[in-house]
Amino acid sequence: MNLCIVGTGYVGLVSAACFAEMGNDVCCVDINPEVVENLRKGKVHIFEPGLDEIVKRNTEQGRLKFTTSIKEGMEHALFVFVCVGTPSKPDGSCDLSFVYQVGKEIGQNMQDYKIVVDKSTVPVGTADKMRSIIAEELKARGVSLEFDVVSNPEFLKEGDAVNDFLKPDRVVVGTENVRTAELLKALYSPFARSRDKLIVMSVRSAEMTKYAANCMLATKISFINEISNICERVGADVRDVRVGIGSDHRIGYQFIYPGMGYGGSCFPKDVKALIDTSRQYEFEPQLLASVDEVNNRQKHVLSGKILKYFEPQGGVVGKTLAIWGLAFKANTDDVREAAAFELIRDLTAKGMKVRCFDPVAGPNTRKEFAGDPNVEVVDEQYAALEGAAALAVVTEWNQFRNPDFERIKKTIKAPLIFDGRNLYSPSFMGELGFAYFCIGRKD
Ligand code: UGA
């Protein structure tokens, strides 16, 4: 099949590469000429395990092409996937200007029947608006062409996106048109071989499903973080509580790891956007508002522990904290809404210096804190510890799980660890002679 994919971010590029891998001819459109030029040479601008290889192979074999022209991209395509960004506005609502701009350009360039597929995360009602934007453009051109707009939200996780795309739990297709549903079923048949993996529903239900899924997962995280805060106060250990509740298959073990609060480009934005949508319909979403609030509070729990610890020792002014992990989670260089940044801001505001390390997110962090003399990013894990009064572990990269504790002790000023991801065993840390503070356990 011939596809056009507009937007070469995480969702667009991963979808394009995986569709091409299954033998489809895919033309990707991006407004950034530099990104397009690099992709043509097989150079991928985002860090996503396994993606480089698939992009390179399919580009070399001619199934994956890149252009800055939507006209060219759409020329032979039956499907036009919209995979552009939907950032949050300052009030929490979703900025749809990129999506609607693409809608206009589709209307301006359409020459024959197209199925326009919204893959970006968009509020309920966006597909209807897209339909009218495209229709207006066609009317302005004085042409009458048939087209369809469907919702097909993406459920991929950064760091595991290729795998999620190739082996999805489910594929959700929102359309009221039976023929369009059949065409999408055919397109997805290599990924969702079992028929019940492909779920067809109305456009609005599909748009809502995306938000409901992310908000459910965000709720699980805020729930366990709330429990962890209570555990700390009552003298329980949240790690045991997690196993105790996760063993009930109705609850499950996944997404109940307490930590630094959820970050990234999806959960914080999507929870806020659904709150906003709900308020537009004059319904106060009390649970979602609390999920968001609990998450904002959680991002300051570790800095609170650090400030409290150093208070009797004259505070943190002039002291240095080593930080391991800057990305919002492991296996990505993405630092959007990263808990590490909140930690850095909290502590440098109190006069502490930080020396940070991350396996891949160093460059993005340097950009964020450029010119701040209190923030240093180093390229080696143990170098971050030199002269530091303590170590804070913020992202759960595998290389932090079993470090050389003797080397840490030798390098750092005092054997003191604040662990925002509960990577180590408190009793083992005690045996090694570390003062150890983690999440959800009485200090
Ligand atoms: C999330 C969803 O998991 C995907 O299904 C969805 O498609 C995607 O958003 C999206 O809407 O595009 P992602 O943001 O890549 O994917 O990351 P997650 O792995 O879900 O992690 C989100 C945040 O929650 C991270 O900060 C992570 O550290 C935190 N988290 C996750 C916890 O604190 N505890 C957990 O138990 C799980």
TrEMBL record:
Protein name per UniProt: UDP-glucose 6-dehydrogenase
EC number: 1.1.1.22
Any one Gene Ontology molecular-function term assigned to this protein's record: UDP-glucose 6-dehydrogenase activity
UniProt KW Transmembrane helix keyword: no
NCBIfam families: NDP-sugDHase
Enzyme class, spelled out: oxidoreductase
Gene: rkpK
Active site: 266 (nucleophile)
Any Pfam family the entry gives: UDPG_MGDP_dh_N
Catalyzed reaction equations: UDP-alpha-D-glucose + 2 NAD(+) + H2O = UDP-alpha-D-glucuronate + 2 NADH + 3 H(+)
Protein source organism: Fundidesulfovibrio magnetotacticus
